[in-house]
Amino acid sequence: MTTTHTTGDPKGDGMEGAAGLLARTRAAVDPRLRTTVESLPGQVRRIARYHFGWEQADGTSAEGNAGKAIRPALVLAATQALGGDPRQAERAATAIELAHNFSLLHDDVIDEDPTRRNRPTAWTVFGVPDAIITGDAMCALALRVLAEDPHPASAKASARLAACVIELCAGQQADCAFENRAPQDVTIEECLTMAEAKTGALLGCACALGALYAGAGDEEVEAMDAFGREAGLAFQLIDDLIGIWGDPARTGKPVGADLVAHKKSLPVVAAMASGTPAAEELAELYRAPAMDAAAVRRAADAVERAGGRDWAQSQAADRMARAVDHLSRAVPELGAADELLALAEFVTRRTR
Amino acid sequence: MTTTHTTGDPKGDGMEGAAGLLARTRAAVDPRLRTTVESLPGQVRRIARYHFGWEQADGTSAEGNAGKAIRPALVLAATQALGGDPRQAERAATAIELAHNFSLLHDDVIDEDPTRRNRPTAWTVFGVPDAIITGDAMCALALRVLAEDPHPASAKASARLAACVIELCAGQQADCAFENRAPQDVTIEECLTMAEAKTGALLGCACALGALYAGAGDEEVEAMDAFGREAGLAFQLIDDLIGIWGDPARTGKPVGADLVAHKKSLPVVAAMASGTPAAEELAELYRAPAMDAAAVRRAADAVERAGGRDWAQSQAADRMARAVDHLSRAVPELGAADELLALAEFVTRRTR
């Protein structure tokens, strides 16, 4: 049994298994996702179609790149792991995917991000007002899909997803607030809490909804939520490492992208908090309004010397170990949870 | 029985009855609304408190002016009219008030409105990102309150409110789109559809939720929704008349405010569509980037000569008559619906 992203996969099928599951999830959920989005009114529907990559800005049809379907795959795999029928949980998987994309639409507006999935973001094409409105409608649609689901888990799932959206908001708000503070003033604890709210909460909610749709009891639902949260934190830590040392050819991000953007990512905040000379060097580089290529290399080196890289890697390993512990509370015979484990490894192994 | 805002109130207690009901609604719903808002995280909670007028921007306590509570009063009055216990519907009333305030927060961002209820809008105080995020959290909170309600009507009410939020989005989107079109190109039908989505839908939803919480059947619920929608349209028509001819001392709006803002309100669009010489005169005034006081008077006069004022008044009367027809389908003995009628008259009598 593999427990961290740095450990090998003895079965040798983790990546293949996850990739296959993600492809099957897209195939199972996309038709329902498209039908659901079609229920949106007029221009809002058009912007949603564009955001999902199904349509060009001019309304002609597009290849489609709606993302990796990790969250809906977690829903279906969690249902499966707890002995439920994943087909019964497809509405819940659709709702989770809609909630995720609502948050992307609004995050892009708030962060003024120009691109998403290699295309111009919706707000750059349709304007800020329409992007806000489309996000609002997509959030309400996510909750409508659950509320209209005749499945007995629907009410609990609705309440849980609504609470999760509120936590996503808290995470996004904290992220924005960090941008206005000196990097040394942001503590690791604050940063981890923010990452849990912004990334962990929705992955946890996806797993919890899957458990609810399998008819699981409260303890199993909470254990599955905790599994998803910890796996989500591991995912964020790895993502932050990629943001500094990632291979641009594999990740699509330039080397040191997060440093150039002065992002207070987890390895950076850990390095700043180390009290080492390298921490002061890094803080100095962050005080400058811009970094050239040499400064970016020096900053990455400073994060490493200050222990930020090692810390993030061991934190990610630790979080994955905790995730598996939680999972084993919900699914004592972990063999039944092989899909969930494959997914967790898939999202936390992207540096290799 | 009075059916329009231009007819007298034979009982002589319509306004007093409505004012009393609104005061009682505030007293009944506010404690729950405050407790619910307290469940929001950190900064989001603070911005929500500010928006409701409970706190100043610096966090000190404020007098509080959370609006007139028309929508929650409709919920409670609808429950009462259909023989239910309004106390059982207080969560639903709270949810409706949260959904309304979510839409206000985002509308203020989108329309760049500087003031709301005589105070600086949240986005001007806390910035656009935090105002968007707080609106998102408030929308999710509205749906969470319903989803967590153990009342048997909760699931249907959640689905209905989620659908209503989507319709609000459609209305707001249409309103934004109209701003970018020449006034003559916007048809009356489009404008009425927009007003129904932006104003009527939530009033209809409030009445429908009240009916659901009284255990009413589908037909009564739909009739109550239709009552609220038509009353909402009448309300919007009157509001648009006030925006041109309202008494600034009573309404807080300057005379001709909507004309100065080049707003494509219902009387203006009706006037433009009249094909009269006054319509052309009005279109000419709207083509100018700004209007001085004399131009505003000429524009108001042109709307009147083109028939826009009479049209809006007779439409409002017509909509109120339809509203009462729908209400009588849900509550055949209209005496039981006196509170709903008083509320409908209250919101459509403000020109006198």
Automatic annotation (TrEMBL), chains A, B:
Keyword Transferase included in the entry's annotation: yes
Record flagged with keyword Methyltransferase: no
Matching InterPro entries: Isoprenoid_synthase_dom_sf (IPR008949), Polyprenyl_synt (IPR000092)
EC number(s) reported in the record: 2.5.1.1, 2.5.1.10, 2.5.1.29
Keywords: Transferase
One of the record's GO molecular function terms: (2E,6E)-farnesyl diphosphate synthase activity
Catalytic EC class: transferase
Domain of life of the native organism: Bacteria
Pfam families: polyprenyl_synt
GO BP annotations, alphabetical order: isoprenoid biosynthetic process
CDD domains: Trans_IPPS_HT
PANTHER family referenced in this protein's UniProt entry, alphabetically: GERANYLGERANYL DIPHOSPHATE SYNTHASE (PTHR12001:SF86), GERANYLGERANYL PYROPHOSPHATE SYNTHASE (PTHR12001)
Family recorded in the similarity comment: Belongs to the FPP/GGPP synthase family.
Protein name in the entry: Geranylgeranyl diphosphate synthase type I
Organism: Streptomyces candidus
Lineage: Bacteria, Bacillati, Actinomycetota, Actinomycetes, Kitasatosporales
